[in-house]
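Memo subject: From amino acid sequence to discrete backbone structure tokens
Keywords: amino acid chain, backbone geometry, structure tokens, three-dimensional fold.
Body of memo: The sequence and its backbone structure tokens, given next.
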Amino acid sequence: MSDTARRHNYHYSHALRWIRFLHLVALKAEGFPTDRTLWPLGFSDPGGVTRFVKALHGRTLSELPPDPLRRWVPRGIVDVFLGGAGS
């Protein structure tokens, strides 16, 4: 990790969680049911998806607003690079 990333409290693992979440949103937007997104996104069961989304956003997938990907991407950028201001 670079000094700049350290100074700005950037966490690579948090960025990866957002990328995984954005993949989930994109697959859902294409009409894939949650059970068909488990394996490609590295989840072993539906509960894993629920726990993952809840850990990232504090709510389950069904409780999140049904915003399109173009609305989630800026939120992820703000959250990753500005330390949670966009959640």
